[in-house]
TrEMBL record:
Top-level taxon: Bacteria
Region Disordered, annotated ranges: 402-421
Residue span(s) of domain ER-bound oxygenase mpaB/mpaB'/Rubber oxygenase catalytic: 143-356
InterPro entries cross-referenced by the UniProt entry: Lcp-like, MPAB/Lcp_cat_dom
GO molecular function, one term: oxidoreductase activity
Phylogenetic placement of the source organism: Bacteria, Pseudomonadati, Spirochaetota, Spirochaetia, Leptospirales
Pfam family, one: MPAB_Lcp_cat
This protein's name: ER-bound oxygenase mpaB/mpaB'/Rubber oxygenase catalytic domain-containing protein
Amino acid sequence: MPHVAASASPAYPARFRDPSQNKDFFLALTERLFIRRKVTPQEVARYGTYLWQGDSDADALALKFHDLGMVRQGSPQVQTPMAMLQQAVTGNLPQDAPRELEQLMKNVSQDPAWLDRRLIDIGARLSQRSGMLGEYVLSCVSLMGGYRSAAANKPIAFTGQLEYMAPRRLAETAKFGFDVTRTGAMAVGATGYQAALKVRMMHAHVRLMLDRSPRWRHAEWGLPINQADLIATNVLFSAVYLGGLRVLGLQISDEESLGVMHLWRYIGWLMGVADELLPENEEEGTRMAWLAGVTQPPADEDSRMLGHALMQVPLARAEGSLARAAAWLEMQLRSGFSRIVLGDPAGDDLGLPNNPFKYAIAFTTPVIFAAETLRRLVPGATELAVQLGDALQRRMVERPLAGKPATFTPPQSLKRESAYA
């Protein structure tokens, strides 16, 4: 288990910012315009304690897997820990499964009392209907926004998964987002359900490695991949995602909004996020996103390195002079959209280009909004949009993977150290 206990640690790690001292104009504007029930000092204080908390069930299993050896040698009849996990997440617990794996699967096999699978499917359909716009928001807003935090980005920086393998890692992240947002994908044993549990265990394995690393600065950063950072990521993919889609012109009904939030509430629950942190609706998600943002530390060199690597992905995939020119334009548009949604302070922190391309949205959003109005008026158009959006997202996900499956397996070692380690 992680060796830094809250009872033996300062109230908060040094990374925790006092909201009263965070003068970010964009966060202040968000609070004024979109948060009706203000975050209380008690909620801020409680959120800070989650920087010390991990995921007890997954952490216990990661430790057991580590003791067994992630790739166990011996008789061919003896399964490796990762093979046992793969079998378990499909709904077939191995006979020789350790007690920790039995406990984890027992807990996730019992649906939470609040679960409404009809809402999950509504959220999945909106995610599919978003098509290319959804990918745009997840990359330019959800991922880019998460990299701004100088503390939350440390696990990625330490493992070197973005700097050295940016196209591949982004393709696998996109595959995860695709898998968990298909209609029916979150049924027990289905593709999205499996992906959520595999990523949960990947987080636990990385948490164990970093928690044991002498270079991990617990007093500064808290526990690696802690509950506060897990819920911050969750709301970036739910509430902030919905806001980004609206900025692009997508029209989202109240039921669709609730469906997306419910879908990610269940994904978060499967991935070990504390139930009391998971928002029920978009308003609660926006409050949580604000709370996460206002207490984060400012960007550092790792933030800029990760932001640059993410921005460069289109160029890394381009072949030929014409493709590279198109990739350069795409980079400018994506960086501009990040600045529009996250704010110029975030764009400056991440080292993103700041040029007139960011105002292209003033021309594209009205066109998309008009098309969305037509969709709502024409019978069958919404269903067609779901099917087309799903097909487009599938092609966008599968092409970068080049036929190689996304395994969601943890790294076996720390590839590099953070620039600030």
